[in-house]
Specification:
With 200 residues, the protein is mainly α. It has one domain. It is 87% helix and 0% strand. It has seven helices and no strands. α2 runs parallel beside α4, α4 packs antiparallel against α5 and α5 runs antiparallel to α7.
Length: 200
């Protein structure tokens, strides 16, 4: 039961930490600022983008601004690097939760098997004279399996939710990053056309 107690403590701690993390992400979400950044980028007002996004805690805005700051080199790679950092933050501790989901039932079964072995040892030593002691020992041994399954189920639900939030965020990042790349490409092509017209 001690390893199961440790698993439950670790799982509860991570679930609370991740819940607070995602509540902050939701609080800092500013969809209007994302659209404003894209609108200013479409007009080529890069300095205004930087000023509008200053101090923003919106992860999408941070990624877009990172791409804009490196637009003369490689906008796509800059946004990809920033997105990787953001997604790493979102998926933090998910490996630990997934491990607990797998390990907790196995620890429970291990505890049950050890308990049953002990009960049969008692049966071999004392005989069938006190069957209640043997069946009581087996019933007690099954508690670890129930505890392991409970920990696994209660960890799996938030784990899947956090993973789904991370996946949804990844899709949102891809959507807005692609929009910015297209906008920048159109802007650059328009600039090139104007330069050609002036030369001709």
């Amino acid at each position: 039961m001690l390893p199961l107690l440790l698993c439950s403590f670790v799982s509860l701690t991570i679930v609370i930490e991740r819940t607070v993390f995602w509540l902050r992400i939701r609080r800092d979400r500013n969809q209007s600022l994302v659209y404003r950044v894209l609108d200013l980028a479409e007009k080529g007002l890069w300095e205004e983008v930087r000023l509008a996004a200053r101090g923003s805690k919106n992860f999408i805005v941070r990624i877009l601004v990172n791409g804009i700051l490196h637009r003369d080199y490689s906008m796509a790679m800059a946004m990809e690097s920033a997105a990787a950092d953001e997604l790493q933050r979102m998926r933090k501790y998910m490996g630990v939760l997934e491990t607990i989901v797998t390990v907790a039932p196995l620890l429970g079964i291990l505890g049950t098997v050890v308990g049953i072995i002990h009960s049969f040892d008692m049966l071999g030593a004392k005989g069938i004279g006190d069957p209640q002691a043997v069946t009581g020992g087996i019933a007690q041994a099954l508690i670890t399996t129930a505890a392991g399954l409970s920990i696994s189920i209660l960890t799996l639900l938030p784990c899947n939710y956090f993973n789904s939030r991370a996946e949804a965020s990844a899709l949102a990042i891809e959507k807005y990053a692609t929009s910015l790349e297209i906008t920048h490409e159109k802007l650059m092509n328009g600039t090139d056309e104007r330069v050609k017209e002036k030369r001709s």
